[in-house]
Structures are given as C-alpha cells and as structure tokens.
Design brief:
Its EC number is 2.7.13.3. The protein is built from 18 helices and 25 strands. By secondary structure, it is α+β, with helices and mostly antiparallel strands. Strands 14, 15, 16, 17, 18, 19 and 20 form a 7-stranded mixed β-sheet that branches. It has a 6-stranded antiparallel β-sheet with strand order 3-2-5-11-8-9, with no helix packed on it. Strands 22-21-23-24-25 form a 5-stranded parallel β-sheet, with helices on both faces. Helix 2 runs antiparallel to helix 3 and helix 11 runs antiparallel to helix 12.
Length: 762
C-alpha cells in the first residue's frame, strides 16, 4: 500500500555483533534517536547491533529498504546476510572508517512472511550515536519516489538559495554603497553549501571517499560560523546604531568561540559544536532586539525582516534538535532555509523600493537646491555687475580728479569719496567671496608658490603704508622652509593680508611679528604654521565668540579705524578650512592678539622661481603707474564698451599713460575696427547689447581677413571665477575687473608688451 517508516522500538545488543536470538536479557532502543536502553539511558560511543523482525503478507515480493542517517559506520543484514555496507565498522576509534551514505537496497524475498533486519553499527567519531533519521520499507517505485522527492527538496532549496546569492551579488556590483546585498548573498551561498552536508539526504557523502568524515564535520562547524557571522553582519548593516553594539559584539564573540575548538579530537569537538549551537541560538535571540525595535519605528521592510529572522532562529533550533537525533526534524530544516531566503528577498525588495523613493526625493531636493544656488549666483553676478559699473565711473573719475590741482578742502572731500568707494568695493568683494565659500562653489587653484617671497611681498605692501617710528612689522622664520609649496597663491595671500590688515588697524604703536614654521609630516608633505602677533588693543573675552562670525565687528565702537564689512575674519577662517587647516586666537584685552593658522601642503619640485605678482587678479598688485608708458611700449589700443562713462574713464586712464585709444560702443563696430585698424590690444567689455564680448572674440579668432591677431583682454564687472574661465576658454588672453584702477591698466599693458603681444589663446 506504500512506504512504511520503521520507527519505534528496535532490539539493541550493546557491544555485541553476534547476539543470540533467544537471549533472556533483551534491551530496546527508539529509532530514530540516540541509542539508549529500555530505561532511556544513553549508551556512550561504542558499537552495537540493532535488530527488528518485520512481518509481511504471504507472497510479498520486491520490497526495498532506504536507510536513514546512521552514525558512523554500519552494515545492513537481512536474514543474517550482508546486503549493504557504509564505511568500515570497528570496535575502536582506529579500526572504524566512518561514512554516511544513504542508499536504496533490495530486500530478498521472504519465505516465511518474516524479514529479520539487523544493523551492525560502530560509533567512535561523534558524540551522538545511533540512527538519526528513519529507515523506510516499501516497493521499488514508492521508495524511489520517496528518495527522489527528498533529493528534489534539497536541490530546489539549494538552487533557490544559490540563485538568490548570485542575484544579490550582481546587485552589489551595481550598487556598491548598498552592502546589504553582498552580506545577504554570502548568507544564501553558505546556507546553500551547508544543505549538501546537513540536508535530508546528505548528498555530499554519497560522492566523497571514506576516511574524510572528520574533515567534513569540522568544515560543517566552520561553515556554520561563517554563516552565523555573515548573518550578524547582515543584520548590523541594516540596523546599524551604537545602541545595538553590545548585541552585535556578543554574537561575534559567540561565533568565533568555535575556532578555539578546532584542534580538539573529534568527540570533544562534536560535543563543543553542540554546545556552540545552543549558545548561537541564545545570541540570535538577542538579535531580535534591534529587529523588533525597527518594527516599532516602522522602518521599511522591518516586518518581513522579523518574520525571516524568526524562521532563521527556528532553523537553528532544528539544527540543534537534529544534532541530538530527535525524531523527524531533518525533514523540516531545508524549508527553514527557503522561508528565510524568500522572506529576506521580499524585505530587500521593499528596502530597495524605499531607497529608490528616497533617492528620487533627494534628487529633487538637490535639483531645487542647485536651482536656488544658481539663482543666487546669477543674482550676485548681476548685482556685482550693476554695482561695479557705476563704481567704475565714480572711482575712475576720482582717480583722475586726484591728478588735478585741488585746494585742501577739495582734497578732503575727494579723499572721503575715495574712502567710501573703496569700502563699498570691499563690501561687494567680501560678500561674493563669502557666498561662494558657503555655497560650495569655491575652488582652490593649486600651484607651486614661493612662500618666503610671498610673505615678504605681503609685508612690504604694508610697510610702505606705516610710520616706521610708531609701528614696526617684522618677519621671522623659525626654521628653513621648502623653496616651493603647492597651494593657492591668491587665497594664501588673501589670508595673510586680512590678518595683517586687522593687526595694523588695531595697533597704533608697537610691533607686529609674523612667525613662520615648517613641520615635516612625511617625505613630500609639511604642515605650515603662521602666526601674526600684534601689540594692539586686543579683544575682550566676552567678544571672542563673535570673532569669526559674518558682519561682526568686535571693536566697531572703540575706534574710527575699524571701518569695514565685518567679513574679513569669517572669510579668512573659511579659506583656511578650504586649505584643510584651522585657525585659533589668543588675546589679552589691552595688550594685543596672536592669530595662528596652519595647513598641510605638498612640497613642489618646481625649480624656476615664479613671480609672485602675476596678474591683476592677484591680491598683491603693482601700485604705481608711468605717464610715459606709451613711449616705452608704443601700441595701438582699442576700447570696446557700450557704457559711455566706462569708455570715458578708460580713455582718460590711457591718456594718462600716453595713449590715444580707439573706441567702439558695440560688437559689430568692434569687429569692423579690428579688421580696419589692426589694434595690438583690445580691452573688450563682456556685456554689450548686440553681440557679447565672447562672441566678438570668437569671430576675431576665426577671421581669416585679420592678418595679425590682437591680444584681447576681458574688461567686465563680473568677478566670479566662472566668468573668468568662460572668457579664457572663449579665446580671450586675460581678464580685468571693474572698477578699473590706473595702476592695473599700467600693469596689464606692461605684461603683454613684454610678451611681444603674442596672444596665449590663439
């Protein structure tokens, strides 16, 4: 009628492979289970004969027997005739060769309606002995069907887990920032591999040679530890919080304990393995804390995760029960693996969907933020242009007026105009700098810089403006500096100038000492430490907290010399932080202040010394001009600007230098005059009504009718770095900002005249 599991009481003859049939002292054990006597007392490792008499109907033929898992070596006898052998039984550890094959065996036909089934078993290589899973009797077709179903279950679960492992490994290759995929892939892979040796049919044992049973047992323990560790890492990656740290560390310790037992003999090791399984179950129960907490906090997929972990804990419980040979347990173990894998796949899918939603939301927020930043930048660029354009006229004409004969009263009024204009320009520059730093649009331009020369140039600028009898500025090098360092020359000079400017502003008399120290970090890198110490009025302790705040002037109520924007130190701090350094201050009110900053820099291998003053955009600039410059450098110069006031200012400046300039008020006329007069230098406004300056430049550069290309210098009220790069990439050779200063114009003409007017962007 079908298959019959041979579960129940079997006769056991302990330490006896040739028992007498009619023995008066018979003991019985329960199969499947650890071998015991009639009083359920466990036998130790050793050898025994288990026997059973099976009654069958008359003329019953074609019966088959499928053995269960029998530790560690055994022989099957029917009517005292050997029909199957797994490993080699022995009466000691050395004489036994263990093996765990599961086979289907044909039963000889019964002649007296009785089958005498005997098992000769030896167990010296494991602490749990006996028959772990049922022996089954049935017809050939039904036994084969049962075996195929059992193998199929193992294969389906193995293939499912292996597919999940491969799928999530591929996902990890595409989303490296999502480590849950790789941890889950490892968990599924190890679970699939373990099925080969702990599944219902123990498939791997059918294909391994005898004699490596101990190795497989130890590998089973190692694979369990790796599975356990990867599972804990998987949970930790999902619920990564300091409050759960103790739970994870406890599980890591429990998992790794097993490695200390690997050198033990196989019996002690197998006992330790059983204890380790129980400890692991306790540790896994602790993992429920972060998981249940995640459910309470309604984290994405937390319910799926809780369900899968409960399935996993159940699975480990089944492993423990299987370890102690409890009835029927192995038939459920692989389903625990499958439930775990599929439920975790659902959890990760829900988590991925939520992540995609979050990424879309963050993308939208990023686009909105970028739109706001772009609007802010555009607004600042426009406002800068609109403010600087009239300022060019104010400051330019002020400079021209200063060259005329004036009364003392007129000079006083003119100085006030110049002072107010300079402060307004300073405010515009500082606001632009601070905005770029806060919006993340600030970029460093690293280049080899002679720090020693830069420091001397900065100090010399201030020395020319001071009364040496009242205030002395000194520079001291604590040790030798590298010749060149890789840093942003303009920003470094801006930092030094801001700190020196404040020191001069708040020090009526005494001294200002700048000390510089180079601290080696490793072969090609140093930490540059700069200190600016003054003997000025100092900073009140209660105002120290506002020192680096924007628009905060610590001494605005104390002295008339403190006129400024209140942005200098805020910008200085942010610039130093952009260089990867920091700044701090020590001050005693009434006695002076000491500002110290440091940053790290690479040592440059540059051999040829560069000029510190390189362009109008450098902070340290040439401050004088030559009224006979045209005699030294006779040039034909064209001014292209749609604003008549700016045209007038530039023309007057050039006249002071000895030049008579050509003028064009739009792009078309500029092109015509370049073709007609072939100027050497073109000062070109960027924003013109009919054709902007960059378009004009491109037309000039592409023209085949212009035999000699002029040097084209951008003249714009837009000071943003992006605008400068746009001009240079558009074919212009240099860049000047409004308001224009006479000495800047002198410097630019000298710069390009010395280069024989060879344009750099042809």
């Amino acid at each position: 009628m079908g298959n019959v599991p041979l579960n129940g009481e079997w006769r056991i003859d302990w330490q006896n492979w040739d028992p007498q049939k009619d023995s008066t002292s018979q003991e019985y054990t329960i199969v499947p289970g650890h071998w015991t006597n009639s009083n359920s007392k466990k036998y130790p490792t050793g050898y025994a004969t288990l026997s059973l008499i099976i009654l069958v109907s008359e003329n019953t033929k074609g019966l088959y027997l499928q053995n269960g898992i029998t530790r560690n070596a055994f022989e099957i006898l029917i009517q005292n005739n050997l029909v199957y052998q797994s490993g080699s039984i022995g009466k000691s550890y050395t004489s036994e060769i263990p093996n765990l094959n599961i086979q289907t065996i044909a039963i000889p036909d019964s002649k007296n309606q009785e089958i005498q089934l005997s098992l000769k078993i030896s167990c010296f290589h494991y602490h749990v002995c006996g028959v772990a899973t049922p022996y089954t009797l049935g017809t050939h077709s039904e036994i084969n069907k049962l075996y195929l179903e059992t193998v199929s279950r193992d294969i389906i679960v193995f293939a499912s887990l292996f597919t999940l492992a491969f799928f999530h490994f591929v996902l990890y290759l595409f989303w490296r920032d999502e480590k849950t995929h790789i941890y889950f892939a490892v968990v599924c892979f190890l679970a699939a591999i373990r099925l080969l040796s702990i599944g219902e049919t123990r498939i791997i044992y059918n294909y391994l040679p005898p004699g490596i049973y101990e190795t497989i047992v130890r590998l089973n323990g190692v694979s369990f530890v790796l599975l356990y560790l990867s599972f804990v890492l998987y949970v930790k990656e999902i619920y990564n919080s300091p409050k759960y740290r103790f739970v994870y560390r406890t599980n890591f310790i429990i998992a790794l304990i097993l490695f200390f037992a690997l050198p033990l003999d196989i019996i002690l090791y197998s006992k330790f393995l059983a204890i380790h399984l129980i400890l692991s179950l306790v540790g896994l129960l602790g993992l429920l804390y972060p998981i249940i907490h995640g459910v309470i906090l309604k984290k994405p997929g937390s319910k799926f995760f809780l369900f899968s972990v409960v399935a996993t804990i159940t699975l480990f419980s089944l492993d423990i029960l299987t370890e102690f040979a409890k009835r029927g347990i192995p038939y459920l173990a692989q389903y625990g693996f499958l439930v775990f894998g599929l439920s975790q796949a659902l959890f990760i899918a829900e988590r991925m969907i939520e992540n995609f939603r979050n990424k879309e939301r963050l993308k939208q927020e990023k686009e909105n933020a970028e739109a706001k930043v772009n609007f802010k930048t555009s607004f600042l660029s426009t406002m800068s242009h609109e403010i600087r354009t009239p300022m060019n006229g104010i400051l330019g004409m002020t400079q021209m007026l200063q060259q005329t004969e004036l009364s003392d009263e007129q000079k006083e009024y003119l100085n006030l105009i110049q002072f107010s204009g300079d402060n307004l320009l300073l405010l515009v520059n500082d606001i632009l700098d601070l905005t770029k730093l806060e919006s993340g649009q600030f970029e460093l331009h690293l280049e080899p810089v002679s720090v020693r020369k830069l420091l001397h140039d900065c100090i010399n600028i201030f020395k020319t403006q001071l009364d040496k009898n009242k205030l002395n500025v000194e520079l001291e090098f604590i040790n030798e500096l590298p010749t060149f360092l890789m840093t942003d020359q303009r920003r470094f000079a801006q930092i030094l100038t801001n700190l020196l400017s404040n020191a001069v502003k708040f020090t009526e008399e005494g001294s200002i000492l700048i000390t510089v120290e180079s601290v080696p970090i490793y072969e090609r890198k140093i930490r540059l430490k700069v200190s600016v110490k003054d003997t000025g009025i100092g900073i009140p302790e209660e105002r120290m907290g506002n020192l680096f705040q924007p628009f905060s002037q610590v001494h605005s109520h104390l002295t008339e010399k403190t006129v400024g924007t209140g942005l200098g130190l805020a910008i200085t701090k942010k610039l130093i932080e952009e260089l990867g350094g920091s700044i701090f201050v020590n001050s005693v009110y009434g006695r002076g202040s000491n500002f110290t900053f440091h940053f790290e820099a690479e040592i440059s291998s540059e051999l040829n010394e560069r000029n510190t003053i390189t362009s109008q955009n450098e902070l340290i600039k040439k401050t004088n001009w030559d009224s006979k410059l045209a005699e030294k450098y006779p040039l034909k110069i064209l001014i292209a600007d749609d604003d008549p006031i700016n045209q007038k200012v530039t023309s007057l400046f050039l006249k002071k230098l000895g030049y008579t300039a050509l003028q064009a008020e739009n792009g078309e006329k500029t092109l015509d005059m370049v073709r007609t007069y072939l100027p050497d230098l073109v000062f070109l406004d960027i924003q013109m009504p009919d054709m902007d300056g960059i378009t004009v430049t491109r037309c000039v550069r592409k023209s085949e009718t212009i035999p000699k290309q002029p040097v084209i210098i951008a003249l714009t009220a837009n000071v943003l770095e992006e605008e400068k790069q746009r001009c240079l990439s558009g074919g212009m050779d240099d860049f000047m900002t409004k308001p224009l200063l006479l000495h800047d114009l002198d410097f630019m003409i000298r710069k390009w005249a010395k280069k024989d007017l060879t344009p750099s962007n042809l």
